[in-house]
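Input.
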Amino acid sequence: MEDDIEQAVLLDKLGERLAFERQGTRLYEALINKCESLGEADGVRPSIDDLKDIHDEEKEHFALLQEVILDLGGDPTIQTPSADISGVLSTGVLQVLTDPRTTVAQCLQAALVAELSDNDGWEMLIELATTLDREDLAEKFEDALKNEQEHLEKVRLWLSSRTLQEADISVDVGEELSTEGDAESEETGKESRPKRKRRGTRKKKK
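Output.
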């Protein structure tokens, strides 16, 4: 009886992550479309290649979860209770990205909300798998979490850069900034942040 309950809880949380990763692929498809449609007109934006890389990793996580659910004797097409809640919660995020009136900065804010939730969701799944003595699953989930942590850091950097740009502070963004920030964070153990400098001239408000 206890094993049945544990299995049910595990499948429920796997279904939750499956639903979220499905929405994650749609989220980044929408963000790619937003950046492509606005181009440089909306200022500094993430590179399309970076966004496509994240999209592909979200798709890989979705496939991983499908495989695990099937291996446990579950049905990945069934919407579990937690998956229902996850779907409702992520709907608002996707609506922000697909709204033609939103800017890239506003879409990045929505993506940040999704990535924060995604990271916590994977951490909870790892803890659950470890508690149930399923170290084999926990190890697979750890790899996915590493990807998600990278996604979160990238979105934070992009959003920070956009925010500083709006405040009339120039910021170096892109691969060079990401690489430099990652190297620095590895050495110091601190989160990387974009380097910034104030513009030479600024307009004073009358």
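The beta strands are 169-171, 196-198.
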